Amino acid sequence: MDWIWYLFRFDGRINRALLWQALLIVMMLACMLGMIDQALKVLNGAATFAFNFNVDFDFGVDDIFNVVDPRAYRQLATADRATLILKVFGTLLFLWIYLATATKRLHDRDRSGWWLVPFFVVPALFDQFSDLLPTNSNWVLAVAWAVHIPWFWGLVEIFIVPGTSGDNRFGPDPLAVLEDGSAPAPSTKSWDQQSEIEFVPPSASPPGGMHVKRGA
Q: Which of 12, 33, 66, 134 could be joined to 186 by an S-S link, Cβ 3.0–4.6 Å?
């Protein structure tokens, strides 16, 4: 497997199994960074060792939205420098992996990567600032439902629903098996931004003349 393409590039398609695998990879990396952070604190006498393990379907990148929240800047003055460096490094790395793999998974659904805006960005921004809103207001509850319904739909779309059968505008079917028994190679073309901005309904029909079958 081309791991650079798989984890860091935005072109082509991946199936559900590869997205779940990327989630497991990120969780393992997050545990490694957490253990390094804990070990540094133990060596400095600032903490005792503790093991934490969290499963987060947005790859644990919620902290990226602290950039647009001035309230988060006050915490930087009291943050441990080593912890801060590991946090920034991990958040940026996991964000890139999330965007790259989720975009390719949306491509598998014949959807533009820009669907991540309603699926991920808008709900995360709402959660970041929701504590500033009235707690007993009907309109706040309505807005919360409005922004989190796309979030739930995005989870289903990205992690559960199978991709379109056959080639689509983003590349070959990752589950297709050619007549000689081999799998088609991932797309090597550059990221087609024009295709990204075209919100075309998914098509379940492979192009004519293609003789492929879906794998398991």
A: 12
